[in-house]
Amino acid sequence: MSIFNDTKIAFQDKSTEQLKKAYLMFKGIEHPTLTNLGIKFLNFSIRNNFPFVKTVLKKTLFQQFVGGETREKSQKVVQAMFKHHIGSIFDYAVEGKDDEETFDVTCQEIKENIDFAEGNPAIPFVVFKPTGFGRFKLYEDVQAGKALTDTEKEEWQRVVKRYDEVCQLAHQKDVILMIDAEETWIQCAVDALVNDMKAKYNKEKAVIWNTIQMYRTGRLEYLEEDLERAKSKNYFLGYKFVRGAYMEKERERAQEMNYPDPIQPNKQASDDNYDSAICFVMDNLDKISAFFGTHNEKSTELVMTKMQEKGLAHDDPRIHFGQLYGMSDNITYFLGDKKYNTAKYLPYGSVKDVVPYLMRRAQENTSVAGQTGRELSLIMKEIKRRRTEK
Ligand SMILES: Cc1cc2nc3c(=O)[nH]c(=O)nc-3n(C[C@H](O)[C@H](O)[C@H](O)COP(=O)(O)OP(=O)(O)OC[C@H]3O[C@@H](n4cnc5c(N)ncnc54)[C@H](O)[C@@H]3O)c2cc1C
Predict the structure, then answer these.
(1) Could you identify the atom of ligand 1 that is nearest to the CA of residue 345?
(2) Measured from the CA of 213, which atom of ligand 1 is nearest?
(3) pTM higher than 0.85, yes or no?
(4) Rounded distance between C-alpha atoms, residue 155 and residue 103, angstroms
């Protein structure tokens, strides 16, 4: 039996009313066809400003997966989780915009998140997405080694400047800054940029953390190379380990453009690769710190077992766990209860701006792709437990 099955702990912050609502919502997004139809309707309604749809969205998906419309409005959630030894990682959830003004606004928002996190144990990390700071196509062209026009060169310099400004501030304020990972055809450009930041700001400790996707082939080798690089240039490494979120897109592109699939051949191979990364970290803790961003119970247990074998304290500052807000509370609250370092990605933004994020969560949670069955059975279990407790 799973050690993460204690629903009393998992849902201690949720009222029975909230649980019933979450149950109906997960039930609603369980069916892929319905979800896809719903998403089309939602996109149309939001584009056309239907106030009724906004209201419904705010009371359902938004409430389940988002902290609030602003950082300040998310404070209630932050404090409630922190009472249970669970940190919050603000995720500025505005996506799909790629103009210079938006990139500057995002950069400013991340700086404010760093200020907010300074000396604040409830906010253990700050995070940003590479495409929040620059155009996707520009990253792609840089990675492909395409000759940039003068205007593009200036544009790229502005991207580099945004990275440098937030990394410098994080270093100055002693706040860990994580950079998300995206598609393989821009990720090398991102990695190169982040490696420069690591060499510059991780001399005393790991402040700038990159993300590594273990569903990719060759990533263990990359990790080994990176460790050698860090040793030879004398800096520390911090990594968020995830399996990876863009599998279908990656496979489709590889097939269309006729290059080898960059993704592990099957789920088991991704799982094995992820677990090998856990072992690699545990053998190199003098240089590497890690954040395991996963909803996978086996991998989470493996980290805990390895920590025990190494005699590490549950709150060893080099090891962290993380899940997304609204999902896998059974893992997060269990870890918090046992005083492991654990945190939730907590998205925030206006209802309109977080729609693409919510759509992805809905799609991820259909019965085919996701873990809805598990969420549903845990919620049911807790509702029943509360009934019999009365
Ligand atoms: C806190 C946090 C931060 C995250 N940040 C990022 C990020 O920066 N970048 C990013 O890309 N993702 C990110 N993710 C998402 C993550 O990559 C996974 O998509 C998601 O967490 C599901 O994987 P899992 O380990 O939780 O669990 P599981 O449910 O055990 O694994 C599902 C994952 O396994 C892999 N997989 C499934 N089927 C196959 C198959 N047939 N062949 C090969 N592999 C397969 C896929 O990666 C799939 O997402 C983040 C997740 C969390 C919790």
Answers:
(1) 1
(2) 11
(3) yes
(4) 11
